[in-house]
Design brief:
This protein is mainly beta. The chain contains 2 helices and 20 strands.
Amino acid sequence: MFRKFFTAVLCAALTLTALPAGAASAMAGQKAAETTGISVMTASSRAVSADAASGSTKIKVSLNQEAAMVRANLKLRSTMNYSTPANLLAVIPKGTVVDVMENAGNGWCRVVYGNHQGYVRGGYLKIFTPKLMKTRTALNMRSRQDITNRRNVITQIPKGKKVAVLQTYKNGWTLIRWNSRHGFVKTSYLTSAAEYRVTRTLLNLRSSRSLSSKKNIILAIPAGKKVQLIRQYDNGWSKVVYQKVTGYVKSQYLK
């Protein structure tokens, strides 16, 4: 919950960032430069298009990594600079799902698109925070919400595999990530993949991954209590849920 809020604020609310003199007109020009002059490919005409551009060199992405849907045809750049055409890597079609690696600051997000990794303007992204689930049976992951056409099958996912749920739709379909690829599966073939850990000692649940301040302490979890593990980070922190409260704890105090 806190990570989703943090990312949404930093990556989406670009208009709230303090701008230097003359930057407002530059931003208006940037919007046109980043999103216009490109033929529109809508989400309905090609629901998941990142994999079509990836070939066999798709960059590997963690199952827990955040993702986003591109709101408009968007230029992917090698540097956080929209004033030069030399850094243009690719044009990402509207409706494409990309993997969000980090908020890079100043309204930019670093993303993975196919076999490219670069920077886009965060205001054009709809952020998804993944939820882990498992497959009930072997099933096809598809590029469109349509089971009648075999040509839209991206890959087959074996039974019992964990997938990252990005968005669930009312029509019975779910957008997921599996094996660094995105696609649709039938929601009814997914089940909970919740993992649990037990606290080794009295442990502070925090709103951010930092020990530098007591202000981010939400509550203290007693020793021997079960928590739901949402995500483990490389820097020694884990995102957990305890009594319906989501926060961060040090991984070394879980077993």
